[in-house]
Amino acid sequence: MPAPKTAREWAGSQTGHDEREITRMADLRSHDLTPPKPYPRIPAKKRPKIGKTIVAIPDAHFTPGVDNARAEWAGRLCAHVRADDAIDVGDWFSMESMCKAVGDAEHAWSANSYAEDVHAGIDARLRFNRELDEFNKTQKKGSKLVTEKHFCLGNHENRTDLWLAENPKWRGVISTDDFRSKALGWHEHPFLEVQEILGISFAHYFVSGPMGRPISGFQVANSMVNKLHKSCVQGHLHLYDEAIRTSAQGDPVIGLCVGVFTEEWMDYAGPANLMWRRGIPVLHNCTGSGCLLYTSDAADEGVGVDLGGRRIIKK
CA 202 to CA 258: how far, in whole Å? Predict the structure, then answer.
């Protein structure tokens, strides 16, 4: 008897109580591998937008002597994703003139001009705003982009208030009003004051415990969720970290540390520069209940604002 050519022929040649099972297995082995027809696609114009889009701008550290091209990239990103809100989490102004680490305070004041520090940040604000204005010139009246802009003061901007506390003679001469936030269309919020936007808490960094110490560490996002029990976004550490949990109601609860938005190598940090994530995250589908369906990196948007792991500029 010639050998069977197929699994079914082989199964048909078998006898006994296992024949039915053998035949079934033979059918599985000979399953048609032709791809099925695809499910019909939903046209893009019919896809409903779930919630709003937030662009969370990490510590940008605009500094005299370093170009502000990235401010224009940030503005283009907001236009590209049609951001409903742009949240600057702080340290937009680097304010090196106010830094005691530079050396003697009075020497730092004269060596690193306060006016130049402020101008660097304002120049970046103007470049950011111009990109949104230029985008709106291309839009019809009913489709112009209206982006709500918030500025959470960081510890670098807070250097001005700390300076005034130690040098009261400068009161009335300098202040955080010099950042011109209101004139430039940004809602300015005090250092460490938590802002609730679309159900998500934003601050330069968060504190916890009876001593009010900053939430920190390599797993800062996990600590934020576990200690604050809600969706929250911070900057400050220059690290990128995220943690996702689910509430009893089934809503995602996300902790996010947004990284840093500068290509500059910061000498004070040394090798830690290589640990920083450089770019801008975009928060999609913010529903107002603190629900973020996901946090996507700016690189996913295809507009070139992810500054790339180790591609940094040394002074």
Answer: 11
| Contact by Cβ (8 Å): 140, 185 | no
Strand partners, 55: 86, 282
Three-state DSSP state, 156 = coil
List Cβ neighbours of 255 (8 Å cut-off, separation of 6 or more).
220, 221, 222, 223, 224, 225, 228, 231, 232, 241, 242, 243
Burial profile 166-192: b = 16 or more Cβ within 10 angstroms, e = fewer: eeeeeeeebebebbbbeebebebbebb
End-to-end CA distance of the chain: 84
What's the confidence (pLDDT) of residue 84? 95
Element (H, E) at 237: none
- What are the tokens at 5? 């050519």
Residue 191 CB contacts under 8 Å (≥ 6 apart), including other chains: 90, 152, 153, 154, 155, 157, 158, 161, 204
In 88-239, which residue ranges form alpha helices assigned H by DSSP?
105-111, 114-137, 159-166, 220-228
Give pLDDT tens digits for 20-45: 666 666 666 666 678 888 888 777 66
144 contact partners, CB below 8 Å, separation of at least 6: 136
pTM over 0.90: no
Q: Report which secondary-structure segment, H or E, holds 185.
A: none
Dist CA 166 CA 32 (whole Å): 80
Q: What are phi and psi of 289, to 5 degrees?
A: -105, 10
